[in-house]
């Protein structure tokens, strides 16, 4: 099979490095171009990243000698060189919106890790196991943009991936309300303990904008496509507190949930065990075999032990038990830069290819 030629915009950053790592030996995708800011443009990828390389594995050989393009000034060249791009840049929101739309209008599909377009009505925000049907809104987005190939699809915020997937198959019981506290890793801020030593032996009870995203984004993901737009679900009501904790990778969520029709604990565990999404049905290369994995041990899931399960693409759960104020409480964990960022975007790109929304040129 001919591989899709893939570009990474923001390739030198934390999420960009994850993309570069995940694309090494990918069965469908070949990294052929990288772009970042004007600061990195013209250098080889190895020189542009230098000591910023933060992955646990060495920089892939295929990336080292690629010459970094300027994401803005070289966008025509970048768009022409690839079948689609992944985008993960640290810029102002309006600049990101304009940049991603410019690539889409150059007929280059954009699979984005950024939040800038998450609330654009005809941009699908997709967790492939949860709302794969939302990608059909791309037909309407293309009409608006006047494109035949180009479009933008985004993944949701990393925090919601530690609890929304677990709640999703329980929606048949009518979820009334959810309270969630997230304990989020420092890589979610693009940091390591070396670059953020203040986080050692610390907890910061504030992550700008995160609580609003954690409360609102699940409702878009559970929304429906109506008249060329995604209309958010109106329930459940979700309240969230998001804390930064001294963990390198892996966001944990403590979740409290009440239902209209309360299921039993056994029913919930059976539903989690048997849940299969479109990503599993299509056997996508990055799809975990068992998406929701429940631990009976009372001290699991743990970030250090469990975040890497199934290549960091599984969501691990534990401690399901009755609560005094809600029906149940439980704990969820997902790898924030794999399932929650680059891995989730690679899986979304695989879905878009398998469903013929991205075709090789
Ligand atoms: N880290 C996570 O877990 C996570 C999770 C979900 C979403 N996100 C989102 O993903 C995006 C990237 O996050 P990150 O943690 O990877 O950030 P990061 O490590 O700071 O990397 C930022 C990237 O953006 C590039 N960039 C900065 N200014 C630019 C410009 N004017 N034009 C083109 N490229 C520019 C940088 O290039 P240079 O190296 O040349 O400066 C670098 O490649 C952000 O929108 C973030 O909110 C991150």
**Annotated CATH topology of the largest domain:** Dihydrodipicolinate Reductase, domain 2
* Low-confidence sequence ranges: none
Topology order in helix (H) and strand (E) letters = EHEHHEHEHEHEHEHEEEEHHEHHEEH
Tell me, briefly, the overall form: globular
What would you say this structure looks like, in words?
This protein has 361 residues and is of the alpha/beta class. It folds into two domains: 4-157 and 342-354, NAD(P)-binding Rossmann-like Domain (Rossmann fold, 3-Layer(aba) Sandwich); 160-334, Dihydrodipicolinate Reductase, domain 2 (2-Layer Sandwich). It is built from 13 helices and 14 strands. The protein has helices spanning 14-23, 45-49, 61-64, 75-81, 93-105, 138-145, 164-167, 210-221, 265-274, 278-281, 303-306, 309-312, 338-354; strands at residues 4-9, 29-36, 69-70, 84-87, 110-112, 152-154, 175-184, 224-226, 229-231, 237-244, 251-259, 292-295, 315-322, 328-334. Strands 3-2-1-4-5-6 form a six-stranded parallel beta sheet, sandwiched between helices. A six-stranded mixed beta sheet has the order 10-7-11-14-13-12. Helix 5 (93-105) links the parallel strand 4 (84-87) and strand 5 (110-112). The two termini are 14 Å apart. The mean pLDDT is 97. The chain binds NADP nicotinamide-adenine-dinucleotide phosphate.
